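Worked example

This section walks through a single chain of length 57. The input is the sequence exactly as stored; nothing has been trimmed or padded.
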Amino acid sequence: MEIKNYLTVKQVAEQLGLSEYRIRELIREKQIRATKIGQWRIKPSDLKGFIKTRTNK
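Given that input, the structure is written out below as tokens.
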């Protein structure tokens, strides 16, 4: 496992156009999977999964 393959809360917030606070809320609500490595980190694949669940079909 390499930390550089994970995204920070700030990076995810910028990608989704949301605040860092909202991303942390989504992590707390277990809507976005994250791992605590010093600070919260999100795998790109978990972010894609979150986006996919939010997409209209």
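What to look for: Helices lie at 9-16, 20-28, 44-53.
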